[in-house]
Amino acid sequence: MIKAIIFDYLGVLVHGFENFYTKLSEFSNKREMEIKEIFSKHWQPLKIGKITDDKFWKEMKKDLKIEDKEINYLKKYMTNLLKPDKKIYLHVLKEIKLLPEEVIFIDDSEKNLIVAKEMGFNTIEFKKWYKS
């Protein structure tokens, strides 16, 4: 029995980072341009391995002056960027306390769907709803 549907965020629910920055603007009362600068400042060192995930989130929380619940939103959004690592799928299953066969996973990337399918998820490939 299906108990959950998981949507990929970027490319399925939103196109690009703009909605992400808008949401952060609501959380932090900062302008979107300032949020983009803060994000880039911390994202680049994380991307090349100069800082850890924990350090990244700690610095984002401090610079944006946001609470833990907003950081959790960010983490869920950012998880999207780390697929198709199986650890991400296992993390989600642990969080929602379900088995892969109880979940439908919707993504616009075939490589992400292949890994999810191999793990036992029900998968649906999403076709773009916007024009590039």
Biggest beta sheet summary = 3 strands, parallel
Helix/strand-derived class?
A: mainly alpha
CATH topology: Rossmann fold
The domain count comes to: 1
- The low-confidence runs, each spanning 5 or more residues with pLDDT under 50, are none
Percentage of residues in helical conformation: 40-55%
User: Can you tell me the CATH class?
Assistant: Alpha Beta
Total E-strand runs = 3
The share of residues in extended strands comes to 5-15%
Overall mean pLDDT stands at 80
The order of strands across the largest sheet is 1-2-3
CATH architecture: 3-Layer(aba) Sandwich
Q: How do the SSEs run, as a string of H and E?
A: EHHHHHEHE
What is the alpha-carbon Rg in Å?
A: 16 Å
Q: Give the CA-CA distance, first to last residue.
A: 36 Å
Would you mind describing this structure in some detail?
The protein is built from six helices and three strands, in the order E-H-H-H-H-H-E-H-E. It has a single domain, classed as Rossmann fold (3-Layer(aba) Sandwich). The protein is mostly helical and 132 residues long. It has helices spanning 18-28, 32-47, 53-64, 68-79, 86-96, 110-119; strands spanning 4-7, 103-107, 122-125. Helix 2 (32-47) runs antiparallel to helix 3 (53-64). Helix 6 (110-119) links the parallel strand 2 and strand 3 (122-125). The N and C termini lie far apart (36 Å). It is elongated, with a radius of gyration of 16 Å.
